[in-house]
Amino acid sequence: MKPASPALLRNYVDGEFVGSAATFDNINPVDGSLIAQVCEADRATVEAAVAAARLALQGPWGAMSVQQRAAMLHKVADGIAARFDEFVAAEVADTGRPLEQARTLDIARGIANFRTFADLAACANTDAFEMATADGAGALNYTVRKPLGVVGIISPWNLPLLLLTWKVAPALACGNAVVAKPSEESPATATLLAEVMRDAGVPRGVFNLVHGFGADSAGQFLTESKGIDALTFTGESRTGSTIMKAVADGVKEVSFELGGKNAAVVFADADFDAAVAGVMRSSFTNSGQVCLCSERVYVERPIFERFVAAIKAKVDALKIGYPDEGGVDMGPLISHGHRDKVLGYFRLAEQEGATVVAGGGVPHFGDARDNGAYVQPTVWTGLPDSARCVTEEIFGPVCHIAPFDAEDEVVARVNASDYGLACALWTTNLSRAHRVARRIHVGLVWVNTWYLRDLRTAFGGVKLSGLGREGGRYSLDFYSDVANICIKL
Ligand SMILES: NC(=O)C1=CN([C@@H]2O[C@H](COP(=O)(O)OP(=O)(O)OC[C@H]3O[C@@H](n4cnc5c(N)ncnc54)[C@H](O)[C@@H]3O)[C@@H](O)[C@H]2O)C=CC1
Ligand SMILES: O=C(O)/C=C/C=C(\O)C(=O)O
Q1: Alpha-carbon span 274 to 295, nearest angstrom
Q2: What ipTM is given for this predicted complex?
Q3: Which residues have a catalytic role annotated?
């Protein structure tokens, strides 16, 4: 599949596309082919972007009402929709994901993010409290929302447009200007978004895009810039910790969505077929490269053997292939580097004593895909909960399935993790679902479903999985300074 993006992907600073001295390769993980050259922003370019964002706050953007900003964000959504197929092709080329997923999830959500946050910001209310005073006249408190200022946004490669716009849309809806750095692995849809911003008439400097890597590159330069007021990041937990240190001296506001080692729990009373289908989705969607994926599956002992057999049958039947092949279920991983990491865990699992129920290696196609970053979807059993493969985030199409005997036991095992992002429970007993869901120490619990998203709800994790919440009014809270005004009557 040929990307529709240009052969040279440039930075977008102060309303202009700008080049750079250094470039890096953008590689298609399906076959290792070169998609484009990407301009790597140096420190001066990042600082120019931050300065342009600061200036934009003083210009027409800063004078717009929230309704005018919302109308502009709807124009951005319209612009993505008008170039839908280009966005899909660019996302597929960068990531190798099934075309259908890019259509129904990635790009559709990019559009929805702009529409949702435009509407939420335009309709948001603020607090008001009447209070009594000693003189009997009283006082009135009310809050106003103001933009934070310049927001730095650093996003990952696993859901490139979806996760970038999840932050850009509310930041702009709240009146901020942004400097966004997408992942070096997936720069194409972000560059298309810059074109859409320009064409929608978003004033210069409001949306800036800088390409590059993390350490010693655009990512680090952005976190070190004194000109940003807040930093929002999605990616690996260790990177979150590095970024936190970088912004600590300036006491910048941060919002972090980080890694996970999420569990799925299947009780014996679950709708068996629904649970099997649900765990297939939660473990193998996007080749397991979603922070919400389940890499630990706990199944109540009476149905354990049957469940493992059913998962094995489904995994063996998954179609791995080209993104645009009919009925394809899984594409490659994002890169050879990430594949090396995942294959390292495949080897480690055997050393740790796992039974490999399915997969465990690299598929062979006999064509260009053998130069790609594919791995087999993989299922293990037989590991202790202390195994590294059961405790560390792998971020690949893999799960370990273990039996359990009692509710208290499984709650303790699920909670015995350094991470706390998401959990999926499968049971037909609603009382149990409610009871267990409250006891699981994570930010997100799904019952009899997985990754069903209402964009108005709180999203984020606890422990190593993140800091703060985004989504709905939580995003409006993060991307705004809330000031209280107290009027003595
Ligand atoms: N949402 C999630 O939970 C994600 C988890 N991961 C995990 O992280 C592992 C490493 O993947 P990466 O792409 O390297 O993730 P990463 O967390 O290093 O990269 C995410 C973003 O942060 C930037 N970045 C990296 N180091 C930085 C630094 N020091 N300062 C500022 N920005 C920095 C990157 O350029 C990219 O834009 C993966 O194998 C996977 O396990 C990766 C992507 C998303
Ligand atoms: O907002 C969503 O729907 C998905 C979020 C997924 C992540 O944050 C992730 O995979 O990192």
Answers
A1: 18
A2: 0.96
A3: 257
